[in-house]
Amino acid sequence: MGFRGQHKNKRDAIEPDVIDAIEARGIAVYTMDRPVDLLCTFNGANLLVEVKSGPKARLTPPQEKFFGWWPGQKVIISSVAEADAWAEMISRSPVD
User: Fold this and answer.
1) Which listed residue, of 26, 33, 57, 90, carries a Cα 20 to 30 Å from 46's Cα?
2) Which residues contact 70 (CB under 8 A, 6 or more apart)?
3) Strand intervals (E) in 2-91
């Protein structure tokens, strides 16, 4: 349950199912508006996730700028299958 602010942005239709798939792998999820949709954490690592409904959905200009600038981990997920595969990979990865 995240902070949505005064103006609620439109959420992607698949987001609840994506969150369920990620949480099923033991990864904590916090919903946000900016710069991405989800802040996830697993074994002390913070992971940024942008959810887009469908493979052709585009980042907004501010998101493009952020993704170009941010040196840390970030991922765009556009299906529940992608969410599950990503979450499985994260849950099996050792944390430094």
Assistant:
1) 57
2) 35, 48
3) 28-31, 38-42, 45-51, 74-77
Spatial distance between the Cα atoms of 25 and 27, rounded to a whole number of angstroms: 6
Per residue in 25-81, pLDDT tens?
A: 999 999 998 999 999 999 999 999 999 987 678 899 999 999 999 999 899 999 999
d(CA 35, CA 50) in angstroms, rounded, equals 9
Distance of alpha carbon 29 from alpha carbon 49, whole angstroms: 10
CATH topology for the 15-91 domain: Trna Endonuclease; Chain: A, domain 1 (3.40.1350)
pLDDT of 47 reads 94
